[in-house]
Amino acid sequence: MGTESRRSRSRNWRAWLSEFAATAVLLLVMVTLFRGLFGAGSFLARAIPSQEGRLVTDAVVSGSTVGLLIVSPFGRRSGGHMNPAVSLAFWLMGALSGRDAAAYAAAQLAGSVSGVAVGRLVWGEQAAHPGVGFATIRASEHIPWEAVFASEAATTALMLAAVTFVAARSRLALWLPVVAGSVIAALILLVGRWTGGSFNEWCAS
Fold first, then answer.
1. pLDDT (mean) for 28-51
2. What pLDDT, in 10s, does the model give residues 105-141?
3. Structural domain total, the chain
4. N or C terminus: which one in the chain shows less Cβ crowding within 10 Å?
5. Quick check: is 201 in a domain?
6. For 40-52, what is each residue's pLDDT tens digit?
7. What is the CATH number of the domain that holds 172?
8. Does 204 map to a domain?
């Protein structure tokens, strides 16, 4: 009994650390992407001058990164939530214990801060450039907060509906990385220009 308990605790710690690592990588990629798209003197910013082109690039890179992280060793060990809303949904479904859900949320927060901190070390002052802003998601100043709230709530609900629908069906589970990445990319394209599309990211500044 004691051996089994120790093994269970070991699996939990590995899952939590994997969730931390996956979230840190996601945020590091986002800081790097924002530095490329909006940083001063960036080749990528010159190559993609339009806001529409940058939004598409953001959507494709974000969705692809999430999908790849889900199938990475980190994602296979933890489930690749990288979002407290996803962990909450799995807890409500009974697929995650309350203890694990709380630990996942803590790991995601710590991972997001760590990923941004590493991005600051890698890119220096460019990470703090007003256009980059440590990859902080900001809504358009012309959009009222009520609309931002409603939009983010709706897109989060749509994302969770798609993810949980696929995850709950064994015959579809193989497609979860593709579905999650595609839905995230589509929702960023749909609302990103107005709300920033932060429904799948912990953002730190």
1. 86
2. 999 999 999 999 998 888 887 777 666 665 666 666 6
3. 1
4. N
5. no
6. 778 888 899 888 8
7. 1.20.1080.10
8. no
Report yes or no on 202 lying in a domain: no
Q: What span, in angstroms and rounded, lies between the C-alpha atoms of 12 and 97? A: 11
pTM (predicted TM-score) = 0.83
d(CA 22, CA 27): 9
Domain span at 148 = 2-195
84-90 own/partner pairs: CB under 8 Å, 24+ apart: 84/108, 84/109, 84/202, 85/156, 85/159, 85/160, 85/199, 86/160, 86/163, 89/160, 89/163, 89/164, 90/164, 90/167
pLDDT at residue 36, as a whole number: 83
> Alpha-carbon distance 89 to 70, whole Å?
17
Q: Identify which has the larger pLDDT, 4 or 74.
A: 74
Query: What pLDDT, on the 0 to 100 scale, is given for residue 152?
Result: 79
